[in-house]
What does this fold into?
Amino acid sequence: MRTIGLIGGMSWESTRAYYEHLNKGVQQRLGGLHSARVIISSVDFAPIASMQAEGRWQEAGDVLVSAATSLERGGAAVVALATNTMHKVAAIVTEAIRIPFLHIADPLVMRLAEAGKSRPLLLATKFTMEDQFLIHRLASQGITAMVPPQHGRAVLHRIIYDELCKGIVTDASRIRELIDDGAAAGADCVILGCTELGMLIGPSNADLPVYDTTAIHAAALVEFSLGDRDNRQ
It folds into this structure.
């Protein structure tokens, strides 16, 4: 079993979900008392969130590079960011380490392709929805993502930062409305493109197929750890 290096804390709510997914995935595969070999470098999210809001992405990337290199020195065989938004600086992290970096979008693309989905509705922070770094990566594989209109993007961003990142889980109807509107506009599925959104939305309360990047990313990391995936992304 190879050791997973996880950069977390953005927010710690979703990092907790990653840890659960990783350990359950290993236990399901190996049985008994097996659990994941994982090293977590958990950053303080408040300074990172300020850097995001102020457009200081290089500075935020430098924080993650420090975390990634410490994981590499600590014996990790792969590094992953437990966040969608900070994949805006994924290239900076990838270039700073010698071990593989598993991008959150790559296993997502595989799942969408396997299911024949090509027109997903992307729900995420405003940075992920508007800066299009994830959208462009999907487009390179023939997947055309759509996002909610501006007002919907603003509502969703507030829910993520003001509620979910603080562990506040309330009525999911506001997000279901966005999903219904997306379906009416031609979406064939929903991408939960923020690692906290699985706290609020899942297959049981959405009328479109749901692809949770947290669960999909964690499953790919389990595959890598157990020897089924060894490609540098």
Q: What stands out?
A: The chain has two domains: 4-104+215-225, 105-212. Residues 229-233 have pLDDT under 50 and may be disordered.
